[in-house]
């Protein structure tokens, strides 16, 4: 189901997005070699709850954690764990959803643990983040879903990387996952027409090798089929008459 949000509803989602954005800013200093991904999960959960909000991922289809912490070749939905200790140069994606007084915000951000001496890692992060914003630029009334995906895919593939197909963006509010589906690949001018008041996530997942994935035995975690690295950046945005409004914008 696709719901068009009023200015008041978008403002409420932006409040949830501010909580989430502030957490990602705080993670820049918190994430370091030697800590576990469960420590990150607990840090995020406490920050959400201290802000009077709800970590919406807990309980979603049986999911147990406030975050998804996906390392290196894990594309998405990685489980945090006490024994999963971060090492210098690891590539970590932290994804979480905040529910603040019923308003939702969803954002994933990618971090290098410590320092990376691998130029491919730095290039992958730069390309993925730029791809996110190229997709956002297309999220205006009158454009189509395919315009978002085409902008992302064309840029990413020209840089020598691939775009994950199996996991895509989505509408958000009043629940975590709503219509429309927002692929990060596609043809310009194709797909559903975007309307003022839509709220969606754009969250390209970009791999160094093949875009194909395989699932872990836990039934949640997806990783690259060839063991290559995967990167993701995600914002929640509102489509407005004045252009795309990023609701999870970081300071």
TrEMBL record:
A divalent metal cation 1 binds at residues 95, 106, 234. Gene3D superfamilies: Creatinase/methionine aminopeptidase superfamily. Substrate binds at residues 77, 177. The keyword rRNA-binding does not apply. It holds the Pfam family Peptidase_M24. The keyword Hydrolase applies. Residues 11-241 form the Peptidase M24 domain. Its cofactor is Co(2+); Zn(2+); Mn(2+); Fe(2+). It catalyses: Release of N-terminal amino acids, preferentially methionine, from peptides and arylamides. One of its GO terms (biological process) is proteolysis. Keywords: Aminopeptidase, Hydrolase, Metal-binding, Protease. A divalent metal cation 2 binds at residues 106, 170, 203, 234. One of its GO terms (cellular component) is cytosol. One of its GO terms (molecular function) is metalloaminopeptidase activity. Monomer. Belongs to the peptidase M24A family. Methionine aminopeptidase type 1 subfamily. Removes the N-terminal methionine from nascent proteins. The N-terminal methionine is often cleaved when the second residue in the primary sequence is small and uncharged (Met-Ala-, Cys, Gly, Pro, Ser, Thr, or Val). Requires deformylation of the N(alpha)-formylated initiator methionine before it can be hydrolyzed. This is Methionine aminopeptidase.
